UniProtKB/TrEMBL annotation:
PANTHER family given in the database record: NITRONATE MONOOXYGENASE-RELATED (PTHR42747)
Keyword vocabulary terms for this entry: Detoxification, Flavoprotein, FMN, Monooxygenase, Nucleotide-binding, Oxidoreductase
Classification via CDD domains: NPD_like (cd04730)
Keyword Lyase listed: no
A Pfam short name: NMO
Cited SUPFAM superfamilies: Inosine monophosphate dehydrogenase (IMPDH) (SSF51412)
Protein name, per record: Nitronate monooxygenase
InterPro entries given in the database record: Aldolase_TIM, NMO
Catalyzed reaction equations: 3 propionate 3-nitronate + 3 O2 + H2O = 3 3-oxopropanoate + 2 nitrate + nitrite + H2O2 + 3 H(+)
GO biological process, one term: response to toxic substance
Cofactor(s) the protein requires to work: FMN
Amino acid sequence: MNEGNFVTPFAQRFQMRVPVVQAPMAGGATTPAMVAAVSNAGGLGFLAGAALTPEKIASEVAAIRALTDRPFGVNLFVLDPASPDDATVRRALDAIDPLRADLGLPPGRALERYAPDFRAQLETLIELRVPVAGFTFGLLPAADVERLHANGQYVIGTATHVAEGLAWRDAGADAIAAQGAAAGAHRGTFIGPFEDALVDTMVLVPQLADATGLPVLAAGGIMDGRGIVAALALGAQAAMMGTAFLTCRESAIPEVWKTRVRGMSDTSTTVTRAITGRHARGIRNPLMQRLSETADNIAPYPVQNALTQELRQNAGRAQNGDYLSLWAGQGAPLGRSRAEGLGAAELMAQLEQEWLAAAERVAAFTR
Ligand SMILES: Cc1cc2nc3c(=O)[nH]c(=O)nc-3n(C[C@H](O)[C@H](O)[C@H](O)COP(=O)(O)O)c2cc1C
């Protein structure tokens, strides 16, 4: 492709030679090194800011800026402050404590805080003038979208079905991250039951593009150049890829998680709220299984998430994959043929070659 010749308006807007957005992934995957490597390789890197304090977001953004002059994004969860009643916390801990005991941890306790303060995180994104601000789990009020716009920031809202896409459009979003059912980790669903919102990427992307008229980023199950071309053919302006980057060298998740992702089949994952209180797709393991058996005890997100966190962190340090949340998308096996420990820049270079070759193959049919 010629310099200055971009495949979609979204790619042009961010001078992306490769129409790939590296999806934000909370839990340690999207380090500043990964975000910068992807942006430097002609894509758009995205930091997961949701689990970080405002101070940590600021230091991570500074680290990204030290590594790249190119645009990048930061993603947050739109959350109200959690103030669970004692009974909810007690019930959740009754189910979690036996698992803690397995790892030699004392019984858990109620916490002072269950998640970083969303409003403070948002102020930090505004202060730092992060070029692209992305949101999931909820809808940002139009007044906040306006503030981001007035500050020169681009706003991406996550939708898992058309009504959510229209809500983001009405709030003033610039683009929609279309999260299909194959996607790894938490569902962004914020309108209606999650079961109704497991819409396949294949049907979600064109419906969101038609309904909203906004640039749509296709997320869920895209692992290689074929997927990128398919996403573009469906009307997406870029592919948003998470699981493909999860096993990269720069991803700071525990090695055992990477090993399990590389060993997956297409049916290894399921969607559960047992671990965090919000539906998320991950590889089945004893943690998921045992917390699912006590479904009545599960506290809503972010309470359950915070109450299982110490347990999961300990498991991570011990490389114990049985007690970790092994978030991953259904497309993971498509990444198995790539070299282990591949750098994000190398993955981007492979994706660039692959999508151009796949597009050429499709074009050849018409000649
Ligand atoms: C480990 C992991 C963590 C994730 N964390 C976030 C997050 O913090 N914010 C977000 O908007 N999406 C998050 N996602 C979802 C991605 O943004 C995206 O929708 C998904 O990865 C796309 O599907 P794929 O995994 O099949 O590529 C996460 C995905 C994974 C695999």
